[in-house]
Specification:
It contains 3 helices and 9 strands. It is of the alpha/beta class and about 180 residues long. The longest helix is centred in the first third of the chain and has 18 residues, at about 15-35. The chain binds guanosine-5'-monophosphate (5GP).
Length: about 180
């Protein structure tokens, strides 16, 4: 591994092998539960790109993919939970069986608003898959997560799609940032 991958400010939480094993399990479960359905996997950019890419290759079904980009106004007021669509889906989801694919659920506000918005578009079903779930800071406690890779403690993590100031998304592992000021 390069020196970037052995950054002393990062502590490995899940190794590439552990992630691959868990993603395979989720893919097997989704394959069984969506047989015969018109499955659309929606990746929320940018964080979910690697999770989505790996997960869909573990799903043995004729699915389609689409992407959305959103921005949350968490800096202004955490409780507002306002979400702006920066890039919308390319195709309609009416009548489709949709799984929204996220990198991490923290307060739950982003996915709560997103499911509200997509929920009005006539999908046959709408479920949530997230690689990581950080339950401690959850504000939307009733948000239902249907497929979860790992539940993690309330720490800031990077890698496998997750960033700090847009860096570290390419790390093959998930790492905890020991000192976020130096990330
Ligand atoms: P929520 O609306 O659930 O609070 O926000 C989820 C979003 O916050 C994620 O999609 C991600 O962009 C960001 N986020 C929350 N926790 C972390 C973390 O530990 N690491 C990184 N890199 N992003 C996080």
């Amino acid at each position: 591994m390069s020196t970037e991958f052995t950054n002393p400010n990062l502590k490995v939480l899940y190794s590439p092998a552990e992630i691959a094993q868990r993603v395979k399990e989720l893919g097997t479960q989704i394959t069984a539960e969506y047989a015969g359905k018109d499955l659309v996997m929606i990746g929320i950019l940018k964080g979910s790109c690697i999770f989505l890419a790996d997960l869909i290759r573990e799903i043995d079904l004729k699915l389609t993919i689409d992407f959305m980009a959103v921005s949350s106004y968490k800096d202004d007021t955490v409780s507002s939970g306002d979400v702006e669509i920066l890039k919308d889906l390319t195709n309609p989801i009416r009548g489709k069986d949709v799984i929204i694919c996220e990198d991490i659920v923290d307060t739950g506000l982003t996915l709560f608003r997103l499911t509200e918005m997509l929920g009005s578009r006539g999908a046959n079903s709408l479920k949530i898959a997230t690689l990581l779930d950080k339950p401690e800071p959850r504000i939307k406690k009733d948000l239902k997560i249907d497929y979860c890779g790992f539940q993690i403690p309330n720490k800031f993590v990077v890698g496998y799609g997750l960033d700090a100031a847009n860096r570290y998304r390419n790390l093959p592992f998930i790492g905890v940032v020991k000192n976020p000021a130096e990330a």
